[in-house]
Amino acid sequence: MTGEDSGLVRAVASGSEDALVRLYDRYAGAVYATARRLTTDRGLAEDVVQETFLALWNRAEQYDPAMGSLPAWLLTIARNRTIDRLRALGRRPPTVPVSDVALPDEGDTAALERLIAGGEVVGAGQPVMGPAALLAETELRTSLAEALAELPDVERAVLVLAYRDELSQSEIAEKLGWPIGTVKTRTRRALLRMRNALGPGFMPLDGPGSVVGAADR
Description:
By secondary structure, this protein is mostly helical.
């Protein structure tokens, strides 16, 4: 986030409508584009823009620049509001494939591991992404978090230990006191549930470089 954005957010938190208008003029187009990527309903997208900046007006003091840029924060709000509205209407939002957010020379499996592990969208040792790639990664990270939250506890545990803590399956078995076969079965079930929830284009499950292959290491 630029220093100017930081000052404007502080002004919004203090009640400055002028600062809100300036941020609206700067980022409303990107917020609208985010909503339109998820829905063909122009009216719904326009409503999401208004709701997103209303959230900024009401919660500006909650924004922490150390957690990411202001545009990323606004686009995350916009995406969540759009998804909430689509779900209320019984529609399913599209999912961004892992390949869309992989860094240069990074395969789908490595990208998935990075996203499941969490952390900042752009790390100190990573190439800087363009706006489109940053938006896609923000969208996919949100989808991943939602899919992980819906997993049974035992299946979520094996994925978190494998990708966040970088434990091998034998180490997971030892840590949880499970047979190695149980770890492998629950890992595959967890990945299949995520693929079913997010769509077949989300991640590879079999073949060279597949997620299952990585989980079996």
